[in-house]
Specification:
It is a single chain. This protein is mostly beta strands. It has two helices and eleven strands. Strands 1, 2, 3, 4, 5, 6, 7, 8, 9, 10 and 11 form an eleven-stranded mixed β-sheet that branches. A hairpin with a 2-residue loop joins strand 3 and strand 4. The longest helix is centred in the middle third of the chain and has 13 residues. The chain is globular. The protein starts with 5 loop residues before the first strand and ends with a strand.
Amino acid sequence: MSPDMCVPCGDGLINLRAGALIVRDGKLLMVRSGHGYYYSVGGRLKFGETAEDAVVREVFEETGVKLEVDRLAFVEENYFINDMPANLGKTVYELGFYFRMIVPPDFEPLSQVVTEGESRERLCWVSPDTPEVLFPEAFRTEALDPSPEVRHFVKDDR
């Protein structure tokens, strides 16, 4: 399989990501991180893969169910400090493409466990108004009141 599109750049990393906006009954399917926040189902693009192909692959890998893309919802540029052991403390510039997925009424993940690096994390249905941290934050508005246009967000958590 092709390598992830996460490449060194000076003292930091550039990361290309595709995330899934999976909404059912007013809740978002997200991954509960071992660090106490939620992040979108999805992951890094593989070299040679489109963002849309990547999100379909990642949703299948993480849920065991193949969902179709409805449309690109938003793009987010994000600078943050990595909290994963392999690149702990490095600054990351992440360009994320977030897709609204077509979610059948009977959709249920076949597995509730996601492996990220060496940690095991859980899939959870989360209310957009939870006081806990969500990545990307735009999921709060795009979940229940989506813009009809593709939006662009910029976030800097350095």
